[in-house]
Amino acid sequence: NVTISHYDPDVWNYIEKEKIRQENHITLIASENYASDYVMKIQGSQLTNKYAEGYPNKRYYGGCEYIDPIEQIAIDRAKKIFHADYANVQPHSGSQANFAVYSALLKPGDLILGMNLSHGGHLTHGAAVNFSGKLYRSMTYGIDETTGDINYIQLQDIALKYKPKMIIGGFSSFSGICNWKKMKTIADSIQAYLMIDIAHVAGLIAAGLYPNPIEYADVVTTTTHKTLSGPRGGLILSKNKDNDFYKKLDSSVFPGSQGGPLMHVIAAKAIAFKEVLDPKFILYQKQILKNANIMVKTFLKNGFKVISGKTNNHLFVLNLKDKNITGKQAEFILDLSNITVNKNNIPNDVQNPFITSGIRIGTPAITRRGFKEEEAVHVSNWIIDIINNFNNTQIIYSIKKKVLSLCAEYPIYLNKY
Ligand code: PLP
Fold this sequence. Notes:
single chain; binds pyridoxal-5'-phosphate; glycine hydroxymethyltransferase activity; transferase
């Protein structure tokens, strides 16, 4: 783009560098993905100029005749994908979606019960440093270390004893399958709301490869940019409720917590949802699972510890406690070989969140650029070699060469799925 590069090289040069960084690095950050060319292009459209406070056919601004059908298409496609009766496509992010749901259904000071951050929960599920832990009182449940599964007994015990107003399911770094029905039973037994945040597994759910919580939860929230592969954004879904309930959710987004919707992003969500409805999307999500599964097997075979001992989704967390390296150091050293991961706390971690004892690995991005099992095994072996020899710069730089050549073989924007 000649014009922008001349007009503002200060910013443009960094964008160019970031583009090259993405091409030349193997991204294993479980929450990242590559949006399609269409999705990126639409976000640069004229829709960014338009104010459209309100909802389709109920706007506070004129000139919305072309905006309304776009938002309606996004809503209809979201409902179809997730078998929902209600969708709100306006949340600017996953955190905004969660904020809107809490403020629709709770009062400040109410008790919420979500998954512990270091066991795989998200900041917005009640962490002390987040609005969710400041506006609301919060308690947490975690993983049963012997089974690697969610500790439903602990969840139930806390629920029965303390009677939270809302139970929150969903996670950012748990590699198992959640029993949504069990969570619903527990929530019902204390008349609590059940909110399920599917941000991480939304793509797998859309493809029918992970249980859909829509039948069980009062509300489901998600981001649109992780396994779902759309633009950065949030989405709220619900089913089998009355119109008053849906209205409460709507008004909690606008005017409750947001102003004008980002129509260029909503249009991009609509396009991403069309891509999700394409049968190719199922092949993509299946490959994500295969790649994650073979990576876990490779790590286990080589004496690495995986939290929960397996993965049934797109991610897993390596426990590095017995490797003499922290998560922070592993993240740094892998980056020297152009492999991007994020440090991650493990259950009952003795290290703080800036250091950690683990790294999280996810396969949505590598799969999107075309890696299959063979490449996933190579990547795993490179990570194993680097971590086992973290003082050996020769190994680190020889692997970097291999990473660069694999990345060149699989350019990101060839729309493989
Ligand atoms: N919920 C979960 C489970 C997440 O993993 C994330 C992001 O990582 C969010 C919500 C927040 O999404 P956002 O970064 O769009 O606010």
